[in-house]
């Protein structure tokens, strides 16, 4: 049978926006308990108090940001609370965080030059007092602010504003996308003493949950018969393998676009395989671009050493090998390793009965990682 082909002006998407990262479904499946906990953290602000500080933990793509977006969308209708969602993927400095807060509160950008964090803070606090409103800030992917004590500085500034501006009510939600990371080693004791957050955990979705969520997106966003049950099973299996629902939705979208670009009306397993590789490549590039030049150089050399030696890399041996090529102290060496771990580029673990010895594992193919690090932006 001759396969059905698309005309030039046809599409397989009924509504492509349903597959975008910023889309929030009307009903968020399997997260009722987490939504309830977040609502309870907000409730004091509705009664004239401060929102409760909260830490949200869970692997990437488990609904953390989506649930916050839904809560914040409801708060937009309530004049006594101003919600601010800060993506730490782009706001990587103290100034950028406060710039985003200012932008949300005033619905405009601050002046381009000659503005300090203190002046932004003062303007925001005056506006909060004028509106008699509480401020609820969510730092999404806050683990990206662990470097250079940025998160500590941001929290210290926010959580002690009431000392300089009496009556100011501020709550902070911190989203950590690697549940293995502890927040507190990156915070000073003075910040920990005032932060004292509640914790909300988002576990990975199970296979049946992933399948149901993806099926919802298929029904709402695609025309009938574009995705067969077998291909949907394949996409769900790939998604569960990576424990990242967001990546699964992106995989679904990219596989459909692959078929559409080829002029076909149905998605095949080959489309899924091609989309998996494309997503892996793009994700690695986006992470590496957040690194400084010397960090990229070190990561490239780690990947090169992995290519030549193979197997697990021991921290001490890795340090000695790198030190011959790019001299550095052991403290800086481990700071950069922690940066790579926080970005999801490597894993670090301590083998049993090996003292302080640590093993370093790459999360991506060594050749692919090296090529991305060595490619100019």
Outline:
The protein has helices at 32-46, 64-75, 94-106, 117-131, 150-159, 161-164, 189-195, 207-221, 229-242, 245-261, 269-288, 293-309, 315-325, 330-342, 366-374, and strands at 54-57, 81-87, 134-140, 170-176, 198-201, 313-314, 346-349, 359-362. With 377 residues, it is α/β, with parallel strands linked by helices.
Q: Could you characterize what this model shows?
A:
It is a single chain. By secondary structure, the protein is of the alpha/beta class. The chain folds into three domains: 32-201, Rossmann fold, CATH 3.40.50; 206-287, Helicase, Ruva Protein, domain 3 (Orthogonal Bundle); 291-374, Orthogonal Bundle (Arc Repressor Mutant, subunit A). The protein is built from 15 helices and eight strands. The strands form two sheets. A five-stranded parallel beta sheet has the order 2-3-4-1-5, sandwiched between helices. A three-stranded antiparallel beta sheet has the order 6-8-7. Helix 8 packs across helix 10.
């Amino acid at each position: 049978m001759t396969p059905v082909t698309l005309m030039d002006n046809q599409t397989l998407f009924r509504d492509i926006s349903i597959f975008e990262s910023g889309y929030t479904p009307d009903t968020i499946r399997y997260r009722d308990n987490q939504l309830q906990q977040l609502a309870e953290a907000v409730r004091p602000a509705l009664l004239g108090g401060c929102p409760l500080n909260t830490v949200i933990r869970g692997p990437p793509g488990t609904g953390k940001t989506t649930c916050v977006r839904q809560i914040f969308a409801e708060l937009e209708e309530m004049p006594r609370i101003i919600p601010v969602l800060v993506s730490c993927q782009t706001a990587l400095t103290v100034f950028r965080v406060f710039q985003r807060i200012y932008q949300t509160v005033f619905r405009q950008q601050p002046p381009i030059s000659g503005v300090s964090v203190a002046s932004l803070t003062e303007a925001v606090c005056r506006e909060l007092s004028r509106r008699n409103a509480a401020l609820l800030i969510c730092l999404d992917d806050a683990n990206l602010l662990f470097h250079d004590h940025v998160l500590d500085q941001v929290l210290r500034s926010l959580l002690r504003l009431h000392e300089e501006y009496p009556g100011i009510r501020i709550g902070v939600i911190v989203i950590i996308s690697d549940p293995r990371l502890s927040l507190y080693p990156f915070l000073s004791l003075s910040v920990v003493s005032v932060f004292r957050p509640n914790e909300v955990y988002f576990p990975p979705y199970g296979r049946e949950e992933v399948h149901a969520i993806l099926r919802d997106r298929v029904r709402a966003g695609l025309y009938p018969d574009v995705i067969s049950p077998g291909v949907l099973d394949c996409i769900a299996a790939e998604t569960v393998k990576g424990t990242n629902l967001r990546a699964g939705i992106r995989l679904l979208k990219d596989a459909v676009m692959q078929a559409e670009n080829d002029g076909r009306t149905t998605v095949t397993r080959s489309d899924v395989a091609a989309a998996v590789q494309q997503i892996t490549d793009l994700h690695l590039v986006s992470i590496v671009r957040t690194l400084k030049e010397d960090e990229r150089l070190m990561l490239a050399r780690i990947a090169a050493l992995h290519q030549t030696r193979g197997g697990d890399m021991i921290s001490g041996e890795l340090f000695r090998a790198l030190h011959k090529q790019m001299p550095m102290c052991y403290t800086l060496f481990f700071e950069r390793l922690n940066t790579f771990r926080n970005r999801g580029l490597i894993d670090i673990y301590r083998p049993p009965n090996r003292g302080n010895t640590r093993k370093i594992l790459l999360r991506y193919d060594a050749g692919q990682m090296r090529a991305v690090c060595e490619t100019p932006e």
